[in-house]
Specification:
Helix content is about 20%, strand content about 40%. The chain is built from 8 helices and 19 strands. Strands 2-1-5-7-9-11-13-15-17-19 form a 10-stranded mixed beta sheet, with helices on one face. It is globular and about 70 Å long.
Length: about 450
């Protein structure tokens, strides 16, 4: 057994006792799943391009430290999205901040903090939490179960048409020691309801290392619709292992956008299960590692029933000596006739030392389907560069414009204008680095 798993089990068992019975049961099943796992290495297929050497010794598994203060000014600087009009929930190093969080929400919206659940609420949580993710297949889902302390259950009632987005900010602060932060969220959207949820990960500008283990489960009932945004904007020293697992019932729609700013290690697993006929998934993402950062997206779409559709598009721009990994898998089960599923992954290298490992997969066991997949890895086109430069644009400006244009098509697909307007100057600044080069973009 590896040092990481051994230390995680020790930490989990130290925290046993004094918990609600449903939490204790989930922690126990998480411990059993952890014991059955092996720590990923180069010979582990799903991790062959992503090294977890920085986690291997378990240095981060020391428990949470005392709550760190955070001012409203710092929070707004890191996570304010102008004109979003959202209700905001703020977690600081994994703990909810009542002072910085809103307490009143639209009719049809409710939330339960795991630690504050009544007996009646606990019965519901025991049925929901951990019901979508597969801890036997995902080591860090098992870790989340085994170390479960707190989390959030976000509920949208039947027929609720929520106009205000819910923005959940996860802030990692400065810490003297390596710190593990657990993020756990369950989004429950009942039949015919419509909601928007923004998960926003940020960190203080410091050289301190954080390990964020983030897990979100999403349940969409019949004809429910969720716009889900997951923005990873932590500082470079952060290690983030995250997962988003969703079940889609009949005629439900999940419109999901992912942004991955690079860090030391960032690995996100996205698993979408089509469980009811007529379900649709729109999955778009952008990843932008630079320096010596590593970012890894693994997506799995399970088509288990007929008449479902998926449209998945991810694009990456990899700079300097950074590395990106993308593995997209669409699995069409034998009974999933009349499936329509498309997968596209395009990558742009802006440095001769940048690296991309991409692997799109289609696994089809039904014969009446329409499916396609593709991947590209390229550098900036010489002809496009020449065209811009002959019109008075400098080489650096041309590089910025072409890089921004490569992902702007994905940003255009963001349904909420406030979020796309928030992202564009951040993306432009990332490419330009020199503010003078941004004048053509924003």
């Amino acid at each position: 057994m590896s040092d990481f798993i051994q230390q995680a089990l020790t930490l989990s068992k130290q925290g046993d006792g004094g918990q609600p019975s449903w939490v204790a049961k989930l922690r126990s099943s998480g411990q059993a799943a952890l014991e059955a796992h092996q720590f990923p290495g180069r010979k582990t297929e799903d991790w062959k391009y992503t090294s977890l050497r920085s986690l291997e010794k378990g240095d981060f598994l020391t428990g949470n430290l005392a709550e760190q203060p955070c001012s409203q000014e710092l929070l707004d600087k890191l996570a304010l999205i102008d004109n979003l009009g959202a209700k905001r929930l703020v977690f600081i190093d994994g703990r909810i901040s009542s002072e910085l969080s809103d307490s009143e929400f639209e009719n049809g919206v409710s939330l339960i903090h795991f630690n504050d659940a009544t007996d009646e609420q606990a019965e519901r949580l025991s049925r929901k939490i951990g019901s979508i993710t597969r801890s036997d297949r995902h080591l860090f889902s098992a870790l989340s179960d085994a170390l479960l302390i707190g989390g959030l259950y976000l509920h949208f009632e039947k027929n609720a048409l929520c106009q205000q987005p819910i923005q959940i900010v996860y802030l990692s602060t400065e810490a003297e020691l390596p710190l593990l932060t657990q993020q756990r969220l369950f989004i429950d959207v009942e039949a015919n309801a419509q909601a928007t949820v923004v998960e926003h990960f940020v960190s203080a500008d410091s050289g301190d290392k954080h390990f964020v283990n983030g897990l979100t489960e999403i349940a969409l009932d019949d004809n429910a619709q969720l716009f889900h945004y997951r923005l990873h904007m932590e500082q470079e020293a952060t290690i983030h292992i995250g997962g988003v697992h969703a079940n889609l019932a009949r005629s439900s729609t999940l419109n999901s956008f992912h942004l991955g700013m690079g860090s030391e290690v960032k690995r996100i697993d996205v698993v979408i299960n089509h469980c009811g006929e007529g379900a649709h998934c729109e999955l778009n993402g952008v990843y932008l590692p630079r320096h010596k950062q590593l970012i890894d997206y693994h997506t799995t779409i399970e088509h288990a029933v007929p008449h479902c559709t998926t449209n998945e598009v991810f694009r990456g721009i990899v700079a300097d000596q950074a590395k990106a990994v993308f593995n997209g898998r669409i699995h069409i089960h034998p009974q999933a006739q009349k499936t329509l599923a498309m997968l596209s992954n395009k990558n742009l290298l802006t440095s001769n030392k940048a690296e991309v490992d991409t692997k799109p997969e289609l696994e089809i066991y039904a014969d009446d389907v329409q499916c396609a997949h593709g991947a590209t890895v390229a550098q900036l086109e010489a002809e496009s560069m020449h065209y811009l430069m002959t019109r008075g644009i400098s080489r650096k400006e041309a590089e910025v414009m072409l890089s921004f244009g490569f992902i702007n098509e994905i940003i255009d697909k963001v349904k909420h204008d406030a979020i796309s307007q928030y992202l564009r100057p951040i993306m432009a600044g990332l490419f330009a680095r020199d503010p003078e080069l941004m004048r053509h973009l924003v």
